[in-house]
Write a structure and sequence with these properties.
Elements: H1 14-22, H2 27-48, H3 52-58, H4 61-65, H5 79-88, H6 93-103, E1 105-113, H7 119-131, E2 136-140, H8 145-159, E3 164-168, H9 175-185, E4 192-194, H10 202-212, E5 218-221, H11 228-236, E6 242-243, H12 252-266, H13 279-295, E7 303-305, E8 319-320, E9 323-324, H14 338-344, H15 350-360
Parallel strand pairs: 1-2, 1-7, 2-3, 3-4, 4-5, 5-6
Antiparallel strand pairs: 1-9, 8-9
């Protein structure tokens, strides 16, 4: 009998049962895996005295590949194919690293056009962003078509025809509804529609893609993808034109490496998701590494930026001329300020005390 239990009894261990029930490789188990491994990568980079992107860039291709689990994806990417991609990426690597250090990685802003903002707020935020040099903007859509048409027209008129506009529906629509809705927003020339339907509906995304690509609208998705297998299938089905990795949804750097390599094989640009607490700080390392060592291209590539909550981190992102400047401090930029951690600790932190007191009253 195969030994699967922790004591060789042949019975599944409690951990293995739990893993199957609440995983595997998705959900809370995968999020926990990402948290732990992100910390390990942070420690490794600090031990080497390098920012994470530089640690990855300086790694030998075989060492990088040893960090990747190729199970379930060898039908589209073998280890030898991945090695060939990394070997090709050695050519011009120093020049691309210098380019990043000088100019940074292009970013786009999501901060101007959240649902619920008044027209005056949209105008004010767009005006400020344009003054700061932003050329790529994302607007949230999907609540009300006529409202979307008005808001998109307002933003497009403000930013002009030469700047890039993207749209994000945050999983609002069924497949036919997505096609119909976006057909009516096509006049505003969006580069992509993000998460038009359920993130688990690979064939649905493929159908939407087939309908909208002739209109010049790409499909972007990935921030809610459970694992590398879902990305593999999205790529196989030609269900996306822009791939959005997430530093905390996938199994840390290790699994993101496999997705970056698959995206390169399929020649699909990677445009990471980076809202939320610390996601900008994390994903900047991955996309800078991707440009230097894998993709070697900035065509139709950009990384999301949201301008809030950075004040809680010891090494916050640095944005210059609407670009992420490569971090210089050692580690994965994940370390939070001690004061912020104390304030937000449950249940005795200052923030939680106020929330709990308000509930009691």
């Amino acid at each position: 009998m195969r030994k699967t239990g922790s004591r060789g009894t042949g019975l599944p261990s409690l951990w293995e049962k739990a893993r199957k029930l609440i995983g595997p490789e998705k959900g809370v188990v995968h999020l926990a895996t990402a948290a732990l491994l992100n910390a390990v990568w942070d420690l490794w980079a600090k031990q080497e005295g390098k920012p994470l992107w530089k640690l990855l860039v300086d790694m030998d291709p075989r060492e990088l590949l040893s960090c990747i689990d190729f199970r379930y994806i060898t039908d589209v990417l073998t280890e030898e194919e991945a090695y060939e991609i990394l070997q090709k990426g050695q050519v011009g690597k120093k020049e691309r690293e210098g380019q990043m250090l000088m100019h940074g990685y292009p970013a786009y802003t999501t901060s101007c056009a959240w649902l619920g903002y008044s027209d005056d707020t949209l105008k004010q935020l767009c005006t400020e962003a344009l003054k700061d040099g932003w050329t790529r903007f994302k607007v949230k859509v999907g609540a009300d078509l006529q409202d979307d048409i008005r808001r998109c027209r307002l933003i497009r008129n403000m930013i002009g025809p030469e700047k890039t506009l993207m749209m994000d529906a945050n999983q609002r629509w069924d497949v036919p509804e997505a096609v119909e809705w976006m057909s009516k927003l096509a006049e505003f020339k969006p580069l992509w529609i993000e998460e038009p339907t359920s993130p688990d509906d690979i064939l649905g995304h493929a159908a939407i893609s087939e309908a909208l690509v002739p209109l010049g609208i790409g499909i972007a998705t990935g921030e809610q993808c459970h694992n590398r297998v879902i990305f593999k299938q999205l790529l196989q089905a030609k269900a996306l034109q822009f791939l959005q990795i997430d530093s905390c949804r996938l199994g840390s750097v290790n699994e993101n490496l496999s997705v970056l390599l698959m995206a390169k094989k399929f020649e699909i640009p990677v445009c990471p998701h980076a809202g939320g607490v610390g996601l900008c700080e994390l994903v900047q390392h991955l996309i800078i590494f991707d440009f230097i060592s894998i993709s070697a291209s900035l065509e139709n590539r950009m990384c999301e930026y949201v301008n809030h909550l950075h004040e809680h981190f010891r090494y916050p992102v640095v944005i210059k001329k609407a670009s992420y400047m490569p971090p210089k401090d050692a580690g994965y930029s994940t370390e939070m300020k001690e004061e912020s951690v104390k304030k937000h600790q449950y249940p005795h932190g200052e923030v939680w005390k106020k929330l709990l007191a308000a509930q009691e009253n």
